[in-house]
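Homework help board

Subject: predicted structure for assignment chain

Our instructor gave us this sequence and asked us to write out the predicted structure in token form, then describe one feature. I got the tokens but I'm not sure how to describe them. Can anyone check?
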Amino acid sequence: MSSTIIALSGGVGGAKLLWGLQKVLPENSLISVINTGDDDVFFGLNVSPDLDTAMYTLANLSNRDQGWGLNDESFNCLKMLEGYAQETWFNLGDRDLATHLLRTMHLSNGQTLTDVTKMLVEQLNIPSTILPITNDSLSTSLVTKNGKLSMQEYFVKMRTTPIVEQIKYEHVGTVTLADETRHGLLNATNIIICPSNPLLSIAPMLSIPECSSILKTRKNQVTVISPLIGGKAFNGPAAKLMQQAGLESTVLGLAEFYQDIAGTIVIDPEDRKWQPAIEKLGLSVKILPITMACSDQKILLANSILKEITNE
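My token output:
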């Protein structure tokens, strides 16, 4: 039976590893399960930022300089909205709008987010599977000194500057895993947690009881890739948020955060000094260069991770 790898991911940082994994794995053996806690509605359109980043990256359509959005994008619609005195802090590109229009249309016609995502992935000729963590309403919000902010308000509008007092993962009704996502988590050969923000990208998924329960059961097959090198995140505000949440912003703090659901953590050689303390928590430590500044580094890391977790 062919092996399947599931990778849990948020946006930019995680998508880099997804791209590397898709490059080196056989076709259709990668399942990317994506955070939907960032999802929001802008001008009546359902926007799924992390799903879109994963899709555009794996379709080789993303803007590599900024890590999100589409290459060679224009913003004429946004400029017109600005002319109508509308708030335009959330960048909606002209071609990007096509994705949101289709998603909104199909969701309003009763299709699930999984169904819509699979349709978009197929049309983009992506040779792997991309699934949302859930079809239900999951929303990340941040309580700050500026008041309660949605994830996009905090991240895009406020540029992550407010001090965060509390992060909330809000469920509307009972939130369960999407059916195909559940099946994948239960049956995948190995599960990788990508180097995404632990509090903004991975924790929303773990807030779904089914998800954390399955990962605890399959702990020995779960490998976390650190998003930190030397106490600094290579994308976004992960280190800063960990400090504000009372966590140590080191790979040891990361290991403590994940110790109930993961058996292995991959850290950079720069963080080798933390290996003994992490191993005392019961996690196996693999030391690999985790910087992904270019395509070759993404492929190298993906190959190295797969070699470690499959013992080949």
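Reply (TA_rk): Your tokens look well-formed. For the description, you could write something like this. The chain has a mean pLDDT of 96. That's the kind of observation they're looking for.
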